[in-house]
Design goal:
The structure holds two protein chains of two kinds. By secondary structure, chain A is mainly α. The model of chain A has no long low-confidence stretch (mean pLDDT about 85). Chain A has two domains: about 10-90, RNA polymerase sigma factor, region 2, helix turn helix motif (Rna Polymerase Sigma Factor, Chain: A, Orthogonal Bundle), CATH 1.10.1740.10; about 105-185, Orthogonal Bundle (Arc Repressor Mutant, subunit A), CATH 1.10.10. Helices cover about 70% and strands about 0% of the residues of chain A. Chain A has helices at about 1-5, 10-20, 20-45, 45-65, 75-95, 120-130, 130-140, 145-155, 160-185. Chain B is mainly α. Chain B has helices at about 1-15, 25-75, 80-110, 110-120, 130-140, 145-170, 170-205, 210-230, 235-275. Chain B is rod-shaped, with a radius of gyration of 44 Å. Chain B starts with a helix and ends with a helix. Classes of the chains: A mainly alpha, B mainly alpha. Chain B: Keywords: Membrane, Transmembrane, Transmembrane helix.
Chain lengths: ~190, ~280
């Protein structure tokens, strides 16, 4: 309790952590680690690998903490580091392919889709997507990045990012439909 | 709009989610940070060591080059000027010889008594000054000539030393040969001088004591040794010490002799006065 009271002010806490105060660093870690692990888990299927990525991300956070300007939110700053770390992990582990075949997809109707899915179910659906689709979908739909930003982050063109998102949405719609049919007891073959 | 709604609901649910990391995750992270800090410290010390070694090498090289420069400056290249110096030295020697001839000729005009007195009473100095002082006794009337001679001899001495250094650095064999020739010339001159002086004494005074001849010979010998020491490049410390010792002994002898002489004179006068 004493520690929590002492580090009420986050700015003070960050400044102390930047000076390599272990207790301050631990407090920051304990505060932000669960959310950051969730972020990493959105990109990486295996939770253990996701945790490793999160730890390496926090290592970078504490090393570069002195560069934090207190201009935006601290959580947003850590989140960006985590996302970049996760992307670089996926790139290191296996080559991510981004297919550029532009096809005309018909907009699927989302009207009948049950949006009342549990978090674990949503995560399972996202995990079933390929790495390329998943990255673009999470970056665009969940993190709120623009296609231009995604393109620069992943080293692809904007059109590729758009195609990837379209395909990811299509695949996700298909999977959600499948799941709804299973839950309703009507399976289409 | 439907996909947007669906995506918004996904976003909300995923943002609210929190996955608790494993128990040892913080320890793992803190260990990694400690390792990094150690590495940083080590790398820092490595840089210090590298910087120190570079500085050390620079200092050593600078010292080495400075020494080289000073060693080079010890032996200046006087190749072009050496010939001029030699010519100057030769001219100076010629002048000296002329002066010595003048001195000898002037001796004819002076009385033998004066010479003897001056020879006995004036103290002697070592080296080249010894030669000058011996001549000084004889030439008490020509002070101006004597002063000029002293200056010239000093100049010759300096130039001889410079010449010896340069010649030694250029060709030691040649230098030795030259000094030998010069030495023989000097000794011949001195012998001739002594003989001429004895002849003059014989002409002027019919009775020449052996003491006078010995004095002249000793003087000539000293002149030769002095010249040798000046001309020769290598001056042995033992020889110099011996010279000084002999001079000291001599003066001591003279002092004792003088003391005895004065005492004897006093006693003699006292006895004579008593008898009277």
């Amino acid at each position: 309790m004493k520690i929590i009271q002492f580090y009420k002010n986050e700015t003070q806490l960050i400044k102390k952590a930047a000076k390599q105060h272990r207790d301050a660093q631990q407090h920051l870690f304990d505060t932000h680690a669960p959310k950051m692990l969730s972020v990493c888990r959105q990109y990486i299927r295996d939770v253990h690998f996701a945790e490793e990525v999160m730890l390496s991300g926090f290592l970078k956070v504490f090393i570069n903490l002195h560069t934090f300007k207190f201009e935006g939110s601290f959580e947003g700053w850590i989140r960006r580091i985590m996302i970049r770390e996760a992307i670089s992990f996926l790139r290191k582990e296996k080559k991510v392919f981004f297919t550029e075949d532009i096809q005309t997809y018909k907009e699927a109707s989302w009207d009948h889709i049950n949006t009342e899915l549990e978090v674990e179910q949503i995560q399972e659906l996202i995990d079933e997507l390929s790495d390329g689709y998943r990255m673009v979908f999470v970056l665009y739909a969940i993190e709120g990045y623009k296609h231009q930003e995604i393109a620069s982050m992943l080293g692809i063109t904007e059109s590729t990012s758009k195609t990837q998102l379209f395909k990811a949405r299509k695949a996700l719609q298909h999977k959600v439909n499948q799941q709804n049919n299973i839950s309703n007891g009507t399976i289409k073959i | 709009m439907a996909p947007l709604k669906f995506e918004d609901s996904i976003k909300e649910k995923l943002e609210q989610r929190a996955i608790k990391p494993s128990k040892g995750s913080w320890e793992k992270l803190s260990n990694q940070m400690d390792m990094l800090e150690r590495k940083k410290r080590n790398s820092g010390t490595h840089w210090y060591v590298i910087a120190a070694s570079i500085v050390g090498v620079l200092i050593l090289t600078s010292v080495f080059f400075n020494n080289k420069n000073t060693s080079d400056s010890k032996y200046p290249q006087l190749v072009d000027t050496s010939n001029k110096e030699l010519e100057k030295i030769k001219n100076e020697e010629l002048l000296e010889n002329k002066n010595s001839k003048k001195i000898v000729s002037s001796e004819k005009t002076e009385g033998l008594e004066n010479k003897k007195k001056k020879l006995y009473h004036q103290p002697e100095v070592s080296g080249v000054n010894h030669v000058v002082s011996s001549k000084k006794h004889i030439l008490f009337n020509k002070h101006t000539n004597h002063e000029l001679m002293v200056d010239k001899l000093a100049v010759i001495e300096k130039k001889n030393s410079v010449f010896a250094e340069v010649a030694d650095s250029l060709n030691p064999a040649q230098e030795n040969h030259e000094t030998r020739i010069k030495g023989t010339l000097i000794s011949d001159k001195n012998i001739a001088n002594v003989v001429s002086q004895i002849k003059e004494l014989q002409k002027n005074d019919s009775t020449i004591t052996t003491n006078e001849i010995d004095q002249l010979l000793l003087k000539a010998q000293r002149q030769i040794t002095a010249r040798h020491t000046v001309k020769s490049n290598t001056i042995s410390a033992s020889a110099l010490l011996l010279d000084v010792e002999t001079e000291l002994d001599e003066t001591f002898k003279n002092r004792v002799f003088e003391a005895l002489k004065s005492g004897f004179q006093k006693v003699k006068t006292a006895v004579a006065e008593r008898e009277n």
